[in-house]
Amino acid sequence: MARFLLSAMPFTGHVTPLLAVAGALVERGHAVRFHTGAAFRARVEASGAVHVPWREAPDFDENDQGATFPRVQGRKGLRQVFINLEDLMIGTAPAQVADLQAEWDREPWDALAADEISVGAALFAARSGCAWATIAVLPLAVPSGQGPPSGMGIMPGRNPLTKTRDAALRALAPLMMRPLTGPLVRARTAVGLAPDPLTFAQTVFSPQRVLASGSPLLDYGRTDRPPHLDFVGVLTQPPSGPAPLPDWWGDLDGRTVVHLTQGTQNIDPSDLLRPALEALAHRNLLVVVSTGVRGRDELPFPVPGNARVAGFLPYDQLLPRTDVVITNGGWGGTLRALSHDIPLVIAGGDLDKPEVAARVAWSGAGVDLRTGTPTAAHVARGFERVSHDPSMRGAAARVGAQLRSEGGAQAAARLLEAFAREA
């Protein structure tokens, strides 16, 4: 038996995949602790892990981040990305280190595994020297010498001009990330580390072990990934049993089903839900909408007769019955859809969403609308392409087969088990 501590920033999209890994480790007989926000305590305990709450670190509500971090209020686009990185990820890191140090002093662990925005976990590993693995729950952002820098939402060039563009952007990437150098140095200094001017990626990706959700087909087929990196497909927990279903579930029978979601972060329904519902209102299909907030089973505007709405839906029961997914491009939901061979229409606006959309479009498994706030006509055109181009469904099936072959949470648990044994 090994002792693991898993750490994830308190966002549903980050906690959920690491909970799958935690559950798989528990099944294999290991002792697992999980450091994250209080809102996830019940889910952590249900996985069999022990919850380690944010105590010194300023816990927050992912659906009301502005209450704790006022600068993120109402921000979108690139400015939002940098404020999120500086205030939420880097700014909370010294207090995360204090939490982890207190838990380490109580009982050390054999290996630490954290998502790639848990700066506190990375700094604690650097300070303590403990074995540390990164579990990448976003599109893989390990620097590469191929294609454009990750995160820009740009597909790799295919001709000399665009390949030159990619090389120029790679050269500029450190300069573009320079606004984070000062905050990272201050965080390092605050926890007693030397003020080394590392980039964000150099800080958060372990040089010892990286497990990446996704697969090579969604990584532009890059061939220069480091040898300590493995793809592990989709990190999901097995269903514990049939989930409660809404009263209208029987309406799916015999229908073409389109699942519509904006995930759990940017959840203003005017961004995507409203125009998509308008685009599909008069079609002979059923639109199943997730609001992204548990218990919020209505939208603040009338919905067409062919739409059904719920806060959260059991994907293990919904996706096998879904023909097309329209989404703002959350990585976890996108991977789950593709693992069921479902093509997508993606309106990726902020954070990692444009990158997700570009990668799916590159694979041929969907349409990138290239905006997070499309018009109804824009959504309709994307839906027509996905619905009538058989090559997209074929590409989704190829990506789905590769994702399933990577092994998921069980494979991640086996790799972490070996990592801890060799540490």
From TrEMBL:
Domain Erythromycin biosynthesis protein CIII-like C-terminal, chain residue ranges per copy: 287-410
Segments crossing the lipid bilayer: none
Cross-referenced Pfam families: EryCIII-like_C (PF06722)
Protein name: Glycosyltransferase
Organism lineage: Bacteria, Bacillati, Actinomycetota, Actinomycetes, Micrococcales
